[in-house]
């Protein structure tokens, strides 16, 4: 089926491109699905499982993202603490400008 694209206006041409892209993606998915079925059939015919050949896959290790204990304390307001991670709090910067050292602010 040949389409004469010279006679298409801008909107018709864009519509054709979009339909062709969608169809191309559908064909790719079908091909991948058929290939996957062939691979599984071959593995099964040999008497193995997919996991025997390829392993269990990657196991994602997720960091806890838990609360980090505070490392520094504001001497003027002891309830203000900072873990030492992320942006420095204003009171920390002010204390450093005031002549204090980081080790002076340690808990």
Mean pLDDT figure? 90
| Percent of residues in helices | 40-55%
- Spans of at least 5 consecutive residues whose pLDDT stays below 50 are none
Q: Please, how many domains?
A: 2
- The strands making up the biggest β-sheet line up spatially as 1-2
Task: Kindly describe this structure.
The chain is mostly helical and 107 residues long. It has two domains: 48 residues; 34 residues. 46% of the residues lie in helices and 4% in strands. It contains three helices and two strands. It has a two-stranded antiparallel sheet with strand order 1-2. It is elongated. The mean pLDDT is 90.
Please summarize what this structure is.
With 107 residues, this protein is mainly alpha-helical. The protein has helices at 10-45, 50-54, 90-97; strands spanning 72-73, 81-82.
């Amino acid at each position: 089926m040949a389409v004469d694209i010279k006679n298409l206006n801008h909107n018709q041409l864009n519509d054709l491109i979009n339909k062709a892209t969608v169809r191309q993606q559908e064909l790719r998915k079908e091909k991948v699905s058929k290939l996957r079925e062939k691979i599984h059939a071959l593995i099964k015919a040999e008497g193995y499982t997919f996991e025997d050949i390829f392993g269990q896959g990657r196991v994602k290790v997720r960091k806890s993202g838990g609360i980090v204990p505070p490392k520094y304390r504001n001497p003027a307001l002891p309830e203000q603490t900072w873990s030492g991670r992320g942006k420095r709090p204003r009171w920390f910067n002010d204390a450093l400008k005031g002549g204090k050292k980081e080790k002076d602010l340690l808990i």
